[in-house]
Design a protein that fits this description.
The protein has about 230 residues and is an all-beta fold. Helix content is about 0%, strand content about 50%.
Length: about 230
């Protein structure tokens, strides 16, 4: 079995070895490209022994843009268009929230939009929440009411008995559109009852949406991971 060996001036050798098993039918020949590829490209074959450089295709539907990990009390989590790809590249965005534990027991999760003037606080948000099979409506609020019952924060040492997990989808960020949100969430409330919530909300204003803020109705967020994704069409 033959091999090609390249010896470094420092004495170590890099080798290119022939395959362990003999080619099944005939000799195998590869023709190298006549120039180097670009950064992050890979070497590929056309099936006839001709090698060339190619670009890796990203087939992921969810494109991760940013993640915020909370490990101590934090008043809010913001995602804005200062993040590369955020709110001007995709038509739909998603935020996953895992392991959220509030500082104060029995308070709800809220959201607001940013526009060119900063956080929008006009009473133009309308949310409908279906929680454990019952419908609740919150018209003309200055925020999106994402859940109805408060989140519990019961724990013992490293054991977490109550926390919140959910995924939120956001649409209509461009100007002249009414920003919209929908979600599915599951969490333990302050009585350790399992609570499942699906919600949808819109805003009546049509200013361009440049960011999203998550916060508690009272107190801080103690722990949790918030991850922003762009969803490729």
């Amino acid at each position: 079995m033959s091999k090609i060996s390249l010896k470094h001036s420092g004495g170590n050798v890099v080798s290119l070895n022939s395959p362990t098993n003999a080619p099944s039918a005939a000799d195998v020949a590869f023709k190298l490209p006549n120039q180097d590829g670009s950064a992050n490209e890979f070497l590929k074959t056309d099936g006839s022994g001709n090698l060339s450089f190619g670009t890796v295709t990203n087939n992921n539907t969810f494109v991760k843009l940013s993640k915020t990990t909370i490990t101590s009390n934090t008043s809010q989590v913001d995602f804005t268009n200062s993040i590369t790809g955020a709110f001007d590249t995709y038509k739909t965005y998603a935020v996953t929230i895992t392991g959220l534990v509030p500082q104060n027991d029995d308070y709800t999760l809220r959201a607001r939009k940013f526009d060119s003037n900063g956080i929008y606080t006009g009473a133009e948000q309308h949310t409908r929440v279906v929680e454990n099979g019952s419908l609740y409506s919150y018209p003309s609020d200055d925020n999106f009411v994402l859940i109805r019952q408060g989140i519990g924060n019961n724990s013992s040492g490293s054991e977490i008995y109550e926390n919140f997990n959910g995924i939120f989808y956001f649409f209509n960020f461009a100007a002249n559109n009414r920003f919209s949100v929908m979600s599915n969430c599951v969490y333990k409330n302050a009585s350790s009852d399992t609570t499942f919530t699906t919600m949808g909300g819109t805003t009546n204003v049509t200013t361009e949406t440049t960011g999203i803020r998550f916060y508690m109705s009272s107190g801080d967020i103690s722990t949790g991971e918030f991850t922003l994704y762009g969803i490729a069409s």
